Every structure is written in C-alpha cells, then in structure tokens.
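tool_call predict_complex ligand=magnesium ion
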Amino acid sequence: MNSVTVSALKQYVDQEVELKGWLYNRRGSGKLLFLQFRDGTGVVQVVVSKKDVPEEVFETAKRIGYESSIIVRGKVTKDDRSALGVEVQGSAVEVIQEVHDYPIQITEDVPNIDKLLDLRHLWVRSKRPHAILKVRSEVVQAIRDFYYERDFVLYDAPIFTPASCEGVSTLFEVPYFEETGYLTQSGQLYGETGAMAFGKVVVFGPTFRAEKSKTRRHLTEFWMVEPEVAFLELDGIMDLAEQQIQYVVGRALDKCKAELKELERDTSVLEQVVKPFPRIHYEEAQKVLQQLKSEFAKSDDPEKVKLSGDILKNGLGDDLGAADETALGMHYKQCICIHHYPREVKAFYMKADPTGKYAMGVDVIAPEGVGEIIGGGQREDSLEVLEAQIKKHNVPPESVSWYVDLRKYGSVPHGGFGMGVERCVQWITGCQHVREAIPFPRTIYRLTP
Ligand code: 4AD
Ligand code: MG
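tool_result ok
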C-alpha cells in the first residue's frame, strides 16, 4: 500500500493508501463519522462508515480525541465539494497515541490570542497559524531568490556587536566575558563593509530591539533583510525597495493562494502593488497629513476621527508616528516611499542632503494600517561629516572606529535598506498583529514558549 501525504492524494484516486498524521476534527453520527485528518501538508476528510468497517475500527474512530496521532488506511475517492477534490473512505485507523485533553478548541481563534500564544507550541498545528507560517516561508524564499537572481552576495553580520546602530534606547545588553556586548539591532554597518568588498551584498538574519511598548507592530526579536550597494544613491535605493516588494508580494499571490484563501485575505489590495510607488518628500507628507487631519475630523468613521486626533501628535518636524503612517496608507491605498526626513530624527549614519536640513533616508509605508515595512537610505560618505555625527549622537568612537575606516579607505556614495520580515508577512496575510507572523514571538511580556 502507498504511504502518501495529503498534498499528493489527488494522484491516487481509486487507490488504497496509508496516511500518517493526527486527528484534527470530527463530525458525525452513530453510523457515519467524518474525520478531519491532518498530516502537515493538508487536511483531508476520512469517512468511516459503521457498516463497512470492523466494529473496533469504528469505535476507535469515534473515541479518540483531537490530536491523537494515527495511521489511517483507505481508498481515495473523488469529491468535488471539498477544496482538495478528494476524500478517503477509511477502512482502518491505527492509534499511535490516544489523546483526550487537547487544550485548544478548533473554534478558538485570535480573540484569544494571549491564551493561544501561551500554547503556541501546539497552536501552530491549527489552520490559521499554519497558513500564516507557510506564507512566511514563501516570503523568505522569495527574498532569497530576489537577491540571488540579482547577483547579491549573502553576507552574514554578527549578532554580538560592540555598538548600537539604531539608538541606545532599544539596546539589549549582554555580558561578554570582560566586556559589555549588545545584540544586533541591524546588520547595516557590517553590510556597508560588504558593499565596499563585493559591490552588492545582502544581510539576512535575526535582529533585536528592547522595545518597551506593546504595539501591534513591534517585536523584540525579528528578522530583517538588508541589502547594501556601493554607488547606489537615494533614487536607486527606492527603485530596489519597490522591485523587492513587488517581487515578494507577487510570489505570495502566486504560490500561497490556498493559504490566503484560508485567511480570508482580500488580495485585491496586494494585486494593486505595482511600482512605481508614490515618492513623497517629508514636507509634502506633512501637508497631506494636515489635510487628512481636518478631513478625518469631519468623518463619521470612528477610526478616522480617532486618527485625526492622533495625527501629528508628535508635532511637526518629528519622525512619523503610527497614526500618521496609518492615515497616509489609507489615503494612498498603495505602498508609498517617504523620503528626506528631518536630519535630527534619523540615525547618525544617514547622509545629509545638500541643505544639511534633511537626511537622505526613505521609509516605505504599507497600506492597511501596517505602516513602515522598510527603513533605509543613503549613508553619510564624508569622513568629516560622519565623525561630527558620531560625536553629536554620543556614539562611543572606539566602538565604531572600524566603521569610520570605510570613509578613510575608498569611500563612495552607497546605501541600502532594511525590511522587517514579520511586518511584511503581517501585511501580506492581513493579520492584525505582527506576533502571528513569526513561529515564536518575543515581546516585552513574552519569552515563552
Ligand atoms: O527602520 P529601521 O530601524 O532601519 C534600520 O534598522 C536600518 N539600519 C536598516 C538598513 O538600512 N539596513 O528598521 C528597518 C525595518 C522597519 O522598517 C521594520 O520593518 C522592521 O525593520 N522593524 C521591526 N519589525 C518588528 N519589530 C520591531 N520592533 C521592528 N523594528 C524595526
Ligand atoms: Mg525606521
């Protein structure tokens, strides 16, 4: 008998097969049982009919609890009503482990997210997290393929670092023998060394931030993809970001149809993700926000009224807040690139524009309330200016002396960006919370499981 996976069942119509997996759900009566059987590759309905199987097979199928591990044998038949196109007429159910107290109900879902995240080690078996994590897997593969196809060199940055990249307020400090080390917040500074050595590199790995606020968009451990390219200037960086986003979204739409359907994702917004994205100067974004503020205040949509109050709470000239990003996303209904932020609100390494007032940085804002998914820009390539910035931002000079060397030995214009994988997956899958976009989320309140 063929031992097969649920995903391959369609090729075995009218044949006897053996399936190894778990009992996901069950409906049925005294005479007919419908087992939802899962094996990780999919879920199939196994019909067990009292009149066709030995008494003990029927009793076993009726008795065992959810997530009992089982081997099922039976004949594959066509079933046009099911998404899979087939079902199995069960003839035998062999129990590997019988379970009776599985702690998650099939009907339970995100409203119970805290309870479900306590049970994350088990919850990953359920349809929703399963679908989201499949999309994540495809997104990561698409990112790797995108850069590989464009001849970027994969360049791994260290996780223990001597210095902050994105400001000291979110640094995780770790004892490092006689010294103090920090978990990396971004591989960018190392990526820049790679760009000078290989031309085009991509850093891809976990990054860490001691984010103390509990939001829908922040994790303390997240994965970031960070391309860095020599001789690439701000416009080229925006081109690359657009191309990468379009590629990744396109791949998910193509390869994850079943998952997006399971998640009831309205994919029309994703289909509209076509480059070029609107490119908006920070000052223009502020004007648009002012307009939206008065427009939203008059709206009868409570979400808009609330946004109106929250927009520009930080005041003009600040970094954009979550409400600002949500409002801009609502307005443009498309990914947008906001560039030339005031220099004071951005990191020490950002290149100043010729006026000295703005940083030649860019954030890509995704629509639908997800907000910033990419941050990046051109790097300061002048030794004098970089040294002054290091001083101004109180970065300990000895911790970045190696980085400053890049401006002494063959400095060139260059830049890149970082995209948070979970923010991207959150957006593509339409999940409310970034915590659902990684197998084991880490936040200020969560270190287990
Ligand atoms: O804008 P950020 O802080 O930029 C950097 O770290 C640059 N050094 C990257 C570079 O230019 N190479 O972070 C980049 C992206 C954000 O746009 C967001 O997608 C994600 O990383 N991100 C987070 N994702 C989840 N939880 C958090 N706490 C995040 N902080 C940033
Ligand atoms: Mg940012």
